[in-house]
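Quick note —
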Amino acid sequence: WVPGHMGCRGNEMSDEEAKEAANPEGEQSRLRDLPQALRGRLPISKSTAKQMFAEQLKHQSRTMFEETHAGRKLRRIDGRAPSNDFRK
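Predicted structure written out below.
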């Protein structure tokens, strides 16, 4: 925000439009008015995909470890295993 823009008609109009567009209760675009590419679900971001993959991998490795003989034996000793403390 720059105080030098106060009183500038165009700036104040664009500010009002931005506030209206950001209002979650405001009017939404009709599906048929949107470009075809925006009508479906938006793709997930690269960082979100990496995060989801890491979580799935962590869950899968934990499950696989718990099914091994060593994993079952260790769980009797420490029910938290394999925890991050265990991995250090």
